[in-house]
Every structure is written in structure tokens, then in C-alpha cells.
Amino acid sequence: MFKISNCRFKIKRDNVAKILLFLYDAIAVNVSYFLALWLRFDCEINTLIDTEPEFIEAWAKFIPINTVVCLIVFSIFKLYRSIWTFASYREFFNVAYSSICTFVLHAIGITALINMLDIKAFAFENLRRMPFTYYIFGAMLQFMLVLAVRFSYRFILLERSRRAVSRSKNASRVMLVGAGAAGRMVLHDMNLATDSNDKVVCLVDDNPHKIGKFIDGLCISGNRYDIPDLVEKFNVDKIYITIPTISPVDKKEILDICKETNCELKILPDIYELRDEKIGKSTLVDVDIEDLLGRDPIVVDMGEIFDFLQDKTILVTGGGGSIGSELCRQIADHNPKKLIIFDIYENNAYDIQQELREEHPELDLVVLIGSVRDSRKIFDVFAKYKPQVVYHAAAHKHVPLMEHSPQEAIKNNVLGTYKTAYAAALNGCERFVLISTDKAVNPTNIMGASKRLCEMVVQSFDKLIKEGKFDKMRPLYEHDDSEVANRFVKGNDKIITDFVAVRFGNVLGSNGSVVPVFKKQIAKGGPVRVTHPDIIRYFMTIPEAVSLVLQAGTYAAGGEIFVLDMGAPVKIDTLARNLIRLSGLKPDVDIKIEYTGLRPGEKLYEERLMETEGLRTTPNKLISICNPVDFDADKLFHNVEKLMHICYENPEDVKEFVESMVPTYHPAGENGTEAKPQAYQEQLKAMTTK
Asked: Lesser CB count within 10 Å: N end or C end of the chain?
């Protein structure tokens, strides 16, 4: 009830304001032309009344017509529908155009027409043509009076806002970096905001021709290299970067300068992210850690991806996860015939379903809840929908948790991959892409070892298919059901599936990423917990990783493990300190950093390749192919089946059996491993020379 009453009050208030504006305009348009007469006769009102009374009479008789015509013209130009709080050049021109129209109608359509036709209606007898200066001065005065009342509201709000901020003892002092169009819009928006507690005290721009000039009374005081000195000079608390077209390299350089000032930082998103959104203070966002990577945008051949995915039925397992959901978004942009999302967690699946339905209402979308560990369920999905391309992203990925539940890592990752790959082969799937990880290289944890087994499984599938030996493959299931067993072997006369894997490292913002964890710890006031001061990782944004996964899928011939170039490695300790600085705080002063020690299964560094692997190039320099490592596929499948039975008995020694299957797997133990071999030293060198 309260909301309804509030709404009625607002409507009533708006109507009152509109009526008052109508009355003001009715008076202003006539007063302006009377003042024009007064100016025409040298501001001598007595001379006008005594010697030229017919002019006063003509002006008075035209008042009703002039008033009606002007109000109609003003309405046509929407002078009663604009929000004058945000009046801009558009409203200025509307007032100007309406004044010109009323000038023409007044001069030609009324007075001149009556005089030319010599109409002698009783109301217009003895009328004389008005002096031409009467129309000119009248139109000019009308324009100024009509414009003044409208922009005066904005001026009053501006002054009220400035005084409120200047009176506030807690007002934050803000520097704007970028004095272009976007910077001016943010400045104007902040000046007009009556509820803002920010006061812009300084502008910075790299254009030397702008330095020393003023915008809204504020001086552009220097360029990016002057920021530290200007922060100290103007006692700046916050820095807003207002350059939506800035390059990644320039953005990184400016942020590197700004984060040393301990000011709170915000930034305008990329111009393509803003789209049609009105630029203002509300569009400023927190600086993301990926902004500090300073890397040029990763370029992929979207034409190749479009040709590959268009009009195909595509299945994404784990489609509700961070990688899986981004796969679904980018696939939906490439006109698939049907997109099937398969995930065991219904909340994530529901979220991506609603997002895609809104963004792509034309998309033929199927969302299914189930587990890749359920051989009957996964086979029924393939038998019903016959997906042509599969992106297998379903997996347990959390390293320390899997160390304490190694059986679940094997069941979900290894057996789930095997069952999904087997169903794909039997049901005419053309391409199966496994999402792997750099933790599969020389793994020290069961999660990495399980993903290495997944790579070996898909490579073995591809090898046996190409050798025409797929009939030796057996379905894996623990249930005893002969009917179910029979349907697993139907339709396997012609197997055409190409099996590949794509290996990459950590992705910023993914589920389990350290970045959101650090942000929560900073928001609580610390401490920020880093496992080890020397730990380093490769990082990539989720959209970058997924776009490369999609392009790698177009290069597949079968059996490859594609490796993505993750750029230079990042020290986690440095990342944590940068996040603290981006929040306007000082590491180890405002926010403490604690080192907790490596967690179970962790190591200081990750590797892209094993020693026995080499790299081959692809048309995209960011995607390489590692040379396969030979192993006995028949023995692998025999051991995978044995591993399945072992895992469902939940023994304690499952890691030992996995270690016998993966020669490069060396468990790190409870406290991880702090070993620093040559590979680690090379990564550190890459970080310092980047």
C-alpha cells in the first residue's frame, strides 16, 4: 500500500511541475515579445504607449494565439517530457528549434499573413505590420527565458551537490584519469549527484595539449607519470580510470602506477562491454586482477569455430561449471543445431539455462541433470540426442579435497570420462574434446593423476579406433544387468570419433580460484592467507581459455593433446598483494598476509609438458600440440577396469594403484612439495624478464 501511495504522490508531483512549467512558458513567450517592443523603442515605455499604441494593441491581441501555438510547438519538441536533472545539449537544441519554429509562425503565420490578406476581423482591425526587429528580439528573448528556467534546475542541483560535498568532512577526494568524452561524462554525473560523497579534485590525461586546460573548473594537472605526485599534492583518496578504449598494455602501466599510491581504484569497463549503457559513476567497476596481466587480447579465428559448430548437436558435460558454462555461452553464439547441457548440480545448470534462454531465445537448448558416473544415464543421453561434438568438462578439480577423497576423483574423473567417451563412440559422435589441466603433468596429487589418466584414456580410445580394434573395448559398470550390457554394444560397426584433450592451467574467476577467496578475505579485513611465498601459477581468463579450447577442437585430427600458451607465470604472493593495493589498502599494514604452508597434494609450480613430450605448432601460435607418450593401451584399459572395482570398495591404498598406472605421478604427501627443480627456476626467470 505504501508503494502505491508513493507512486501516486510522485505522479501528482510530476503533474504539478508540468502545470507550473506550462504557466511559466505562457507568460515567458508573451513577456519576451513585449520586451522586444520595449527594446525596439529604446527602452522608453512612455514613448511606445504615446506614439505607437497600435503596436501594444497588436501584441495584446495576439497573446491567446501566440500562447497556444508556442505551447503546442514546445510539446512537439518534448520540452515537457525531458528529465531536466540531466539536461544536456539535446535539450538545448530542442529549445532552440522550438524558438525558431515559433519565430517563423509568429512572423509569417500570424502577423504577416493577416496584414498581407488585409483581414479585417473585428479582433484585428487597424493592425499594422510589426517591426522586423520585434520578431528577432522576441525570439531571442523567448529562447533565453525558456532555456533559463529549465537549466536553472540542473544548476541548482549542481551547486547543492558541490556545497554538500564541500561541507562533508568525510568526502572522498577523487582523481579522474582520462579527460576525454567518457571522463567528462563521469565528472558531470558526479557533480550532479546529490547523494554522492565523492569530490573530484584532479584530472589527469596523457594528451599534452589538454594539460593545463580546465573542465568544469577543474584543471588537467598532468599525465600518467605525474599520478603519484598529484595524489600527494591533492590528498587523493580514490582514483577512477575513465578510458573505456584503453589498450591492455596501457591499462596495466597505469594500474601499476596507481596501485603504488594506496588509493582505492575503479575503472570504466571496455567500450564493448558498455554497449548502450549510459556512462556515469554507476558504470565504474572494481579493477580485476586480469587487468594487471597487461596481455593483448587473445585472437582466435571465429570463422573456423563458426564453420565447425554451426548446425551441429553439441553436448557439454559439466555445463553448469565455470568452464562449462562459458563453453555453453560461446557455443550458443555460433548457431548450433542443438545445445545439450549435462550437469549433476541443478543450481548451476538452472542459472546457465535461464541466461541462455534470455540471450538466445532461438536456441534449441536441452538441460539435463545427471552424473557422468552413471553409465546407463549417459548412454541414454547419447542414444536419444546423438551429439556430434562433445566437450567433456565434468570433473572434480579441487586438489586438497580430492587428496582426502581419492576414490571420488577416480570415479568422477577417470571412470566418468571413460563412460562418456565410450557412449560417444558407439553413438556416432564425430569429436570428443576432453578439458584437461596442467596439473596432469608430473602430478603430485590425485586430482592431477586422475586427469593424466583421462588423457591416456582418450588417447587410447583414439588409437584403437584408428587401428580398427574398438571391438575389444568393454563398457564399465558396476551394476549387474544383462539388458543394459547388451545396449552398450549396439551400433558399433562404424566408429568415427576423434578423441582429443586440451590442457591448460588456472583460470581467473573460476570456481575454486584463489582470486574470489582473496577478495572475501580482504573484505573481512584480513588476514589474506597464501600457502607459500614462492608458489607460482599460470593464469588465463575464462573467456580466453574457452575460445582457445573451441579453436583447438577445430584443429583436431584425433589423439592430440593440445596445450594452451598461458603467458608468463604469476607469483601468488604478488597477486595477493596487488589485490590488497587495488582495494586502496597497504599489504602487511592494513591487511596482514599469512603463509599457511602448501596444502595436501600441492607443489610450488605447474608444468605444461613432461620431459618426454615435445611441442608441435598449429596455425594459432597460442595453441601447441604435445607429442604423445607411448604406453600400452590394452594394459591401461585392463587396469582402469580393475581400478573401478577397487574404488567402489573404497580402499585406503587407491593412490598406490594409481601410481603404478601413471609413472610420472609422485604423491606430495600431507604438506605438498617445496622442491624447486630446473623447471621452477625457468619459470621464475620468465617472470623477471617478462
From this structure: N
Same domain for 414 and 448, yes or no, is yes
Q: Phi first, then psi: what are they for 57, rounded to 5°?
A: -65, -45
- Where are the alpha helices (H) located in 45-131, listed in sequence order? 45-51, 53-61, 63-76, 89-104, 113-117
pLDDT tier at 267 (50, 70, 90 boundaries)?
A: confident
- Counting the structural domains of the chain, the total is 3
Please, how many CA atoms are within 13 Å of residue 547, restricted to the half-sphere of its CB?
17
664 in any annotated domain: yes
Question: Residue 588 falls within a domain, yes or no?
Answer: no
Q: How far is CA 120 from CA 116, 117, 280, in A?
A: 11, 9, 58
Q: Are residues 415 and 481 in the same domain?
A: yes
d(C-alpha 129, C-alpha 113), whole Å:
10
Which pLDDT score is estimated for 123? Answer: 45
- Which runs of consecutive H residues, i.e. helices, occur in 398-541? 399-404, 406-409, 416-426, 446-466, 482-487, 514-523
Domain of residue 182, CATH code: 3.40.50.720
Determine, yes or no, domain membership for 17. yes
Residues 459 and 554 in one domain: yes
Q: Do residue 374 and residue 435 come from a single domain?
A: yes
Residue 365, strand partner residues: 339
Whether residue 587 is preceded by a cis peptide bond, meaning omega within 30 degrees of 0, is no
Average pLDDT over residues 440-452: 91
What's the DSSP call for residue 344?
S
Query: Residue 687 has which C-alpha cell?
Result: 617472470
Which has more pLDDT, 184 or 392?
392
Amino acid identity for residue 13 in this structure: R
pLDDT value of residue 420: 95
User: Do both 384 and 481 map to the same domain?
Assistant: yes
Burial 498-526 (b: 16+ CB within 10 A, else e): bbbbbbbbbbbbbeebbbeebbebbeeeb
Looking from the CA of 300 toward its CB, the CA atoms found within 13 Å total 21
Q: The domain containing residue 278 runs over which residues?
A: 170-287
Any domain includes 559: yes
pLDDT at 2 over 50: no
**How confident is the model over 674-686, as a mean pLDDT?**
52
* Beta bridge pairs of residue 391: 316, 433
Q: Are residues 238 and 186 in the same domain?
A: yes
Q: What is d(CA 374, CA 393) in angstroms, rounded to the nearest whole number?
A: 16
Nearest to 164 by CA among 188, 184, 192: 192
Model pLDDT, residue 122: 40
pLDDT tens-digit profile of 148-157? 777 776 666 6
Q: Is residue 376 located within the same domain as residue 500?
A: yes
Number of residues written out for the chain: 690
How far is the C-alpha of 126 from the C-alpha of 56, rounded, in Å?
A: 12
Phi, psi (5° rounding) for residue 661? -90, -30
Contact in structure between 341 and 366 (CB atoms under 8 Å):
yes
As a whole number of angstroms, the longest Cα–Cα distance in the chain is: 119
Distance CA(387)–CA(408), nearest Å, equals: 27
Mean pLDDT score, 322-345:
93
One domain for residues 356 and 382: yes
Q: DSSP alpha helices (H): ranges in 132-290?
A: 132-167, 181-192, 227-234, 248-258, 271-274
Q: What is the residue whose three cell numbers read 611441442? A: 615
Contact status, residue 491 vs residue 525, Cβ threshold 8 Å: no
Whether this prediction's pTM lies above 0.85 is answered by no
Domain boundary among 256, 287, 318: 287
Which candidate, 229, 227, 129, 135, places its Cα nearest to that of 176? 227
